[in-house]
Amino acid sequence: MIKLKLNGLEVSVEEGSTLLEAAQFYGFPIPTLCHMEGLSPYGACRLCVVEIGEGPRSKLVTSCTYPAEEGLVVRTASERVVRARKMIIELHLASCPQSKTIQDLASALGVRQQRFKQEYEDCVLCGRCVRMCNEQMMAGAIGFYGRGEKRAIGTPFDAKSEVCRLCGGCMHVCPACQLRCTYTEPEKAVCGGCANIEPPCLEKEQFDDMMCYMKPCVACEIEK
Amino acid sequence: MARFNSTEELRQMRRILYDHTDHERPRVVVCAGTACHSSGSNDIIRVAKRHILENGLADKVSVRVTGCHGFCEMGPFILTEPQSAFYAQVKLGDVPRIIDALLAGQYVEELLYADSATGERYHRREDIPFFKNQKRSILSQNQKMDPIRIHDYIAQGGYEALEKALAFGQPEKVVEEVKMSGLRGRGGAGFPTGLKWEFLAARTGDEGKFLICNADEGDPGAYMDRSVLEGNPHSVIEGMIIGGYGTGASEGVVYVRNEYPLAIKNLTVALRQAREHGLLGENILGSGFSFDISIVKGAGAFVCGEETALIRSIEGKMGEPRQRPPFPIQRGVNGKPTVINNVETWANIPLVFLMGAKEYAKVGAENNSGTKIFSLVGKIRNTGLVEVPMGTTIKQIVYDIGGGSPGKARIKAVQTGGPSGGCIPADQFDLPVDYDSLSRAGSIMGSGGMIVMDENTCIVDVARYFMDFLKKESCGKCFTCRKGTQRMYELLDDIASGRGTLEHISLLEELALVVKDTTMCGLGQTASNPVLSSLRHFRREYERHVVDKKCDAFVCRGLVGAPCQSACPLDTQPWRYIALLEKGNLEEAYSVIRETNPLPSVCARVCDRKCEQRCQMGVGGGEPVAIRALKRFVTDRFDPAAHKPERKQIAKNKIGKVAVIGAGPAGLSAAHNLSLLGHKVAIFEAGRALGGMLTSCIPAYRLPRDILYREMNALIDDNVSVEFGKKLGKDLTIDNLFSKGHKAVFLAMGADKSQRLSLEGETLQGVYTSMEFLKAFNLRGEELAGGHVGIIGGGNSAVDAARVAMRQENVESVTLIYRRTDQEMPAYAEEVEAALEEGIQLKTLVSPVKIRYIDTAEKEGVKVHKGVTAVKIHSHGGRLVGIECVKNQSGEMDSSGRRKPVPVPGSEFKISLNTLIVAIGESPDSACLAEMGLKLDKSGRVEVDARTLATSREGVFAGGDLVTGPYTVVDALAAGKKAAKIIDRYLRGEEMIEPRAPMLPDVYIEPSEIDPSDFENAERAEPELIPAEARRKNFREVENALSLEQATAEARRCLRCDLEFTRGARKEAETEGAKDVHI
Question: Count of A–B CB contacts within 8 Å?
Fold first, then answer.
């Protein structure tokens, strides 16, 4: 067993467990997006950052990839951590506001608006689908290509894959397309109201069942 | 080839090679590194060889082709041995002469390297400042060998370090030696190399251990690793073999980017040679130790310089980093423990063993031993690779080695560490360059790129450039790096294009801090550095972009528009009136000029021409359009009184009464513009004439008085009244102005109190300040100068005084004394030139140390000039006879980017003078203002809010020289105009600050069809000056106007930068049926 200090608490965890697992075991919530049980840790979304160490040498690391070390001092919700998380989720919102998962995470962190140029992307490149395909379905049909702003997920040369079995595992684990908010089509809406208390769009009576917490409202923005 | 089976055999070989070399044999050394190669060194080599063969010189002289020497700016070059003469930028035809001179033991003087700043030529390369001030322990090896000849390397002591390391017998001692040397990784982070090796040596590594040489040098502007690898690959190989021996590693990889073909070629050859000689492979030098090195070519991703990404790339996977731990030392290539060091670190290892760790540790600074190579690029005179001991200051690197700025623009900052680094502003150039100091200053050492930026480099644009690079080069795996760099780029792009707000800056900073904190690898963690460090040191420049919508470096196109317009403080549209002039539409050209400028004829003569300095014709290396001369051509043709500017009619109850103090250009401009806005203005002037400095200081030969008065009088209309002889503090106070019903006060009294030398004897008869002297003459016609006249100062008023003195009757000679070099004189260059033509002597690098009284002068044996009478006699002390001066030499750079004048002891000398005029600057005469409750700074200038010109007192505004200190006419006019707008809003009770939009050209003027051949070789039209003899003793205007032909031809030289911005206006005009199009 490894002893470490988690939010001031002396705890011990099994050797080989990550900080995220340790925190979850002891009931400290850490938001994650790219992490999924059963898939290898990847560290892409950066939402699960925690602060380790003390004084000037303390730093932020992703808890999903960092192994629990003997004597490590970990804070899962320090001011620095929360400030970083808020900015990270704001960046996610700016890219992919229609994801219910992202909206809920933002809402839980108290983020009510984002200040960047609004984009409506379908993917946050968290890599869950790639790992699902490789690690659980043993297919390896999709992977990353390109780098920087051109990075994307796809099959080799974007051609129809011969190894894909159309299992749908990739879609099942996607945080951007599951529970997708469908805006102005109420009959299809799955956006059943996130934790936002004050919906910005009060004049949309016919959408009483769906509450977009974003300001400006994503639904209204897209309708324009 | 002989394989060495023991160190003894290697040593024997070295001895043989050494003994069989004629060390005094003449040699021609030519660099064939990438930079010289591209500037044509291959042809030089070919021509040299042919000359030698054709003339049968092969037994007398040889050619050596080497790697990079570092002075890439000067390529292709020839270095001769044993003379050590350095011929820079050699032309093919010169090669035979150089070889013949070498054989004759002579020099081709005119081809030797000459310092571009001083013109001095050097016979020995070691004396050239660029080389003299470096300590080249790595780079100096390049010149001694052909990189593809292992014997060259061995003869220079190559693989001797390996012998020594093997002789230690125990690998631990090798590691210990490296630890003792204090060598730190040259790749950027500066981790102690010995410590890293120790970690690796301590690992058992059943499956073997790995060494990697990181040659994935990808930052823009950096190429030192490339040069080492190209010029001296064996040093890297030797370092790695020693590393392998010390750490117990058996395999090595050099990861080199495919963009370095020459490095790959030379390294491949070197590896083969080393293997053939038994220096690499099984049983190295018979020691029983085996180690081999292979090359892995990278595909050019910047991120693959990051160690975990590099390892994945070597494994054949996608080059993206992974979270550490585990560190490469725990799990590296294929899971094997791995040490990664940079090219330069490996090249330093042989040096450590040759010198001994203790000696090596003595070089450099504390905790930062050894030398470091920097690639010095950007706005710098001597571009190239520079090797200096750690701890050398930036100042030494930039000025002593780099030679400072190549042009007149001052150096503003240095970016260290490439895109991951930060900038260091010029006022911190005393910073020693070592890992710790740089990171404290918010930058990093990086691999050693050093990009010099001057005033013409926009800091926002630089940050945007780096961010563009990083957003493309981020691997994209972790979200904050991929999106963070994209979003930072977006924000920077908004700021640079004029869409920025203050919120952009705060969001940018917030984001940058989070990106730095939360990304996975070194690329992301340092990606914010260009933003954070430039915000830290140049926040003001960011704010200029978003608040004033100005880019002072004239780089951001969306803010600059037409540079001539953007440069003008009055927002005059030179492109527009030049285009109209070219079409012959002079009337409209005049109203375009007059619209923004109340005193156009004055500016057409004495403006400092900020527009011409920024004219794209001039920036591109040609001559700028003669904008001022064209303006004069237009204004000469119109009577200022005939122009009727548009007047605003405002409601009676909105009309305010404004008091303007001072009738100089700032005051007149404010009064005129307020009058146009419908207000009543009362001007109070302490003197007896309008114009302030225009009448009292600027001589009539530059600004004819009839033209000046005609233009000024045209500004006095029904809304404006002038009272002369009313001095603030004596005849008026701000309180009684308010009590008399004035709703606002604009202070524009200028700055006409001359500064003193603070030397004894300054109140002597015959000693005047430039203001006393010029006012006496310009306003009252009194000639104060006589006999031999000396003038101290180098500004415009010094030159004005000199030239006025020259024209006075009793003057025999005039000497101008300035403490710096003539290059640094603040006066307009053409005025200085004109003054010299008129016979004024110039003594530069001289500053006066004491003014002597006549009696002490006589005691010291100085001959007093007799028979020269002073115009005015002061009754105290004695009379001035001369000054004693001391010679100066150029010292260190000061924060203004100019070299400090440093007195040379013992160089004192005397100048006999009858009149001494002190013209070392003016400051405002503002003591009375402090009593009236205004805040002043320590030189007496009024402190105002730069955006509203509001002083610390409600309703009181100030502008012009009173606020800025002595400055230009056009800036004073602009201050007056700005004040008028703000006071108008103040009187109406509106928000005083008006949000600014970028001033972009908005009127489309159809360009004329010009035959390009007419204009390709067209020279700038310079107005003629009347000959020096004809003007020396009178006050006729010196400069003539352009003729119609000259003016039209000159106007055609305009590049019409406006057209890029008026496309929209053009379309509109076309659809409206050419209503507003001027044809």
Answer: 100
Q: Given this model, what pLDDT does residue A223 score?
A: 56
Residue B672 lies in a domain: yes
Tell me which residue has tokens 């207000």: B679
- pLDDT, mean of residues B643-670: 87
For residues B308 and B184, state if they share a domain: yes
Same domain, B161 and B108: no
Shared domain for A186 and A166, answered yes or no, is: no
How far apart are the C-alpha atoms of B397 and B388, rounded to whole Å? 8
Domains held by chain B: number: 7
Q: Which residue of B has its CA nearest to A95?
A: B483
- Residues from B contacting A (CB-CB < 8 Å) are 301, 303, 318-320, 322-323, 325, 471-480, 482-487, 490, 503, 507, 510-511, 514, 517-520
- Whether B521 and B611 map to the same domain: the answer is no
Contacts of B323 in chain A (CB under 8 A): 41, 43, 61-62, 65-66
The first and second tokens of residue B491, run together, are: 């924000």
A112 interface with B at CB cutoff 8 Å = no
Q: Which of B304, B313, B323 to mutate to test the interface with A (most CBs of A within 10 A)?
A: B323
Domain extent at residue A100: 83-120+177-223
Cα–Cα dist A40/A135, whole Å: 8
* Residues B490-540 pLDDT 10s: 999 999 999 999 999 999 999 999 999 999 998 999 999 999 999 999 999
More confident: B875 or A89? A89
pTM confidence score: 0.86
With CB atoms and an 8 Å threshold, state whether A44 touches B514: no
Q: Are B70 and B139 in contact (CB under 8 A)?
A: yes
**Domain count for chain A:** 3
Residue A51 and residue A151 in one domain:
no
Residues in Cβ contact with A160 at an 8 Å cutoff, skipping those fewer than 6 apart:
none
Is pLDDT of B801 > 90? no
Which tokens hold the place of A71?
Answer: 């004597």
Which of B796-810, B966-980, B1004-1018, B1033-1047 ranks highest by mean pLDDT?
A: B966-980
Rg (CA), chain A: 19
Nearest CA in chain B to A91: B483
A14 and A98 co-located in one domain: no
DSSP letter string over A3-45?
EEEETTEEEEE-TT-BHHHHHHHTT-----SS--TTS-----S
Q: Which of residues B895, B920, B945 is at a domain's end?
A: B920
pLDDT surpassing 60 at residue B853: no
Residues A208, A100 share a domain = yes
Beta bridge mates, B791: B816, B917
Tell whether A8 and A59 lie within a shared domain.
Answer: yes
Nearest residue, CB atoms, B323 vs list A62, A117, A127 = A62
Same domain flag for B741 and B889: no
- Tell me the CATH number at A60: 3.10.20.740
Give me the pLDDT at residue B664, please.
94
Q: Choosing among B317, B479, B521, which should be mutated to test the A contact, i.e. which has the most A CBs within 10 A?
A: B479
Q: What's the pLDDT tens digit per position in B177-212? A: 999 999 999 987 889 999 999 999 998 867 789 999
Whether the pLDDT of residue B1075 is over 70: the answer is no
CB contact under 8 A, A117 and B484: no
Q: Which residues partner with B213 through β-bridges?
A: B254, B341
* Cis peptide preceding B326, ω within 30 of 0: yes
pLDDT computed for residue A208 by the predictor: 46
Structural domain that includes position B168? 150-362
The average pLDDT across B797-818 equals 83
A15 and A73 in a single domain? The answer is yes
Residue A182 has pLDDT above 70, yes or no: no
Helix, strand or coil for residue A49?
A: strand
Interface touch A67/B325, C-beta < 8 Å: yes
Do both A8 and A67 map to the same domain?
yes
pLDDT at A196 over 60: no
Last residue of a domain, one of B939, B958, B987: B987
Same domain, A61 and A138: no
Cβ-based contacts of B318 with chain A (< 8 Å): 143-144
> Is B188 in the same domain as B335?
yes
Specify whether the CB–CB gap between B700 and B606 falls below 8 A.
no
